Amino acid sequence: MDASSTANKTGLIGFPIEHSLSPVMFRAVYEYYELDWHYELYSAADHEAFDRQIAQLQTDDGFIGVNITMPYKKAAAQALLKAGGTLQGDAAVIQAVNLVSVVPGEKDGPRGTKAPALLSGHSVDGAGFVASLIRHRGLDPKDIRVLILGSGSASAAICLALAKAKAADIRIVSRSRLRADEFANLLSNYCAEQGFSTTIAGLSYADTMELSHMLRQAQLVVNATPVGMEPDDSALLSSDDLKPDHTVIDLVYGRGPTALLTSARQAAAAAADGLGTLVEQAALSFGIWADAVSIDPKPQHARVADIMQRAARAELQRRELMAE
Known about the structure:
With 324 residues, the chain is of the alpha/beta class. The protein has helices at 22-32, 47-59, 73-82, 90-94, 125-137, 153-164, 177-193, 208-217, 259-266, 275-292, 301-323; strands spanning 9-14, 38-43, 63-68, 86-87, 99-103, 107-108, 113-114, 118-122, 145-149, 169-174, 199-204, 220-223, 247-250, 270-272. The two termini are 33 Å apart.
């Protein structure tokens, strides 16, 4: 992470992140609103590098906030709590963070020394997914049945957001049935405490009969795993597993159709990558930072998301031309 004196810094921490569309999306919004803000990529190849970058957020007065991506969303929650920070909303429930807001420390003591900045952690993955589902796919999550592939931080965030949106039934599919059940029980217990009526349960890929049964009932299938990021990754589900009335969302984006999306289209199912989710959660991130520094007038989410989506699509087209 650059320790220069540049003010109004934002960015993305994770690994690998060279493919990220976040810089072009956020910079487009900063330009539109005439903000002297900066967005950079901060690659953290290991946990030591990640810890150094989180520590710098507390000591560098120039930061407004950062996004966190894999593989550090869980680590970010732990690091923020260790640093005396707080977890807000969904982040506190799933113990994972994909957005940090930085509140500068106040001067303290006779010599005017500064206290460390306060770090506030948020999770906007789930809210971004649901917003994308409604805005880009026209699908209301209320009363639908959902199959989520994966039991990581993104899956937890999406599951929680869908439960809040009153989905009827959510099944979490993992390689390990024990892992899936533990994951589902944690979220199910929280939802019961909050009075949500959604049924949440676990499955493994080895539970072929039960998985086949749930696929026949589901309206929405979500890939929340990294499978598909590499060109030779195979599909987690085949075209025989899917049907025309499925909506299939693969959170992987920007690398052409994944094997799962190809399977979905072969089955005549509605299919979309994760670009819509990326855009919506990025717009939510900007909204939290804008509120923290009291931008006036307050930017409208829909306008911000539209700007980001246009910038992302233009960048993807540029990359396709460069690759030819």
